[in-house]
Amino acid sequence: MQRIVVFTGAGISAESGIRTFRDSGGLWEQYDIREVATPEAFESNPELVISFYNSRRKQVLDAQPNEAHKALARLEDKFSVQVITQNIDDLHERAGSTHVMHLHGEIRKVRSTRFPELVYLINGWEQKKEDLCEKGFPLRPHIVWFGEMVPYMDLAIEHISSADLLMIIGTSLEVWPSAGLIHYASDEIPKFYIDPKAHPVNKIPDLKLISQPAGIAVPELVDQLLQN
Ligand code: NAD
């Protein structure tokens, strides 16, 4: 079975109403990243950080998967599909994708500040500051903050290097080290980059740029792949 790797970013969830990172009107324009998305921020002002992620979680719970997420789930009818996402929302899973790797964490989860292997799915939107892990330590959002190690990089490299086709969707390719992953794809395989601001990428010569919103272009590409 042919292996398709799909590398997604905030843009795939834009049409579900979740704001992207850098676009004008993007989420982060309103916040100073250092005040909400770093380990130092959590240490100095946990209330602010927890309340920032509580509102993000509320927004994600209110959002629904869009046509792009749903089309990717349909790809599994014919292909072995691995989604590697930079997104912290769970819209790929809710659309039906069964192999989803979250490079930057998962907003619906929290984990122990002392025992990182103790990870919990939150019921609802709210992490309360006084909630503790089963060993009595405070909880933090299960998010990879700026300055923290990105987990699963080795596994992601394995998936991308053995892919037969690569789709890159809704990402500015500006957040490293994740953005560097696409360079591990073989030169021989077809590669598509779907994003209204899709741009050529150095050292990836045959990248096919599709400068359209994901909700339009992804279902079209998926239909073509399923028909061939
Ligand atoms: P980014 O904000 O840097 O780039 C977003 C990209 O999406 C841009 O290139 C933009 O042109 C594109 N885009 C906008 N609307 C689109 C649409 N309808 N269809 C397709 N593409 C569209 O996002 P990034 O590259 O993912 O990096 C940002 C970081 O912010 C990631 O690490 C991610 O964890 C985090 N983030 C996640 C979410 C989420 O989970 N939904 C939302 C915001 C930020």
Structure description:
The protein is α/β, with parallel strands linked by helices and 228 residues long. It folds into 2 domains: 1-17 and 65-104 and 150-228, TPP-binding domain (Rossmann fold, 3-Layer(aba) Sandwich), CATH 3.40.50.1220; 19-62 and 105-143, SIR2/SIRT2 'Small Domain' (2-Layer Sandwich), CATH 3.30.1600. It has 7 helices and 9 strands; from the N terminus they run E-H-H-H-H-E-H-E-E-E-E-H-E-E-E-H. It has helices at 33-36, 39-44, 46-62, 67-74, 91-95, 153-161, 214-227; strands at 3-8, 80-85, 100-102, 105-112, 119-121, 139-143, 165-169, 191-194, 207-210. The strands form 2 sheets. A 6-stranded parallel beta sheet has the order 3-2-1-7-8-9, sandwiched between helices. Strands 5-4-6 form a 3-stranded antiparallel beta sheet, with helices on one face. Strand 4 and strand 5 form a beta hairpin. The longest helix has 17 residues, at 46-62. The model has no long low-confidence stretch (mean pLDDT 94). The structure holds nicotinamide-adenine-dinucleotide.
Brief summary:
The chain is of the alpha/beta class and 228 residues long. Helix content is 28%, strand content 19%. The protein has seven helices and nine strands.
Helix content, binned percent: 25-40%
Amino- and carboxy-terminal Cα gap:
14 Å
What global shape is seen?
globular
Spans with pLDDT under 50 lasting ≥5 residues?
Answer: none
Specify the structural class: alpha/beta
Count of discrete alpha- or pi-helical segments spanning 4 or more residues: 7
Give the number of domains: 2
Classified by CATH, the class of the largest domain is: Alpha Beta
What sequence of helices (H) and strands (E) makes up the elements? Answer: EHHHHEHEEEEHEEEH
Reading side by side through the largest sheet, how are the strands ordered?
3-2-1-7-8-9
> How much of the residues is beta strand, in percent?
15-25%
The main sheet comes to: 6 strands, parallel
Radius of gyration over C-alpha positions, nearest whole angstrom: 18 Å
Average pLDDT, all residues: 94
The CATH architecture of the largest domain can be given as 3-Layer(aba) Sandwich
- Which small-molecule species are bound to the chains here? nicotinamide-adenine-dinucleotide
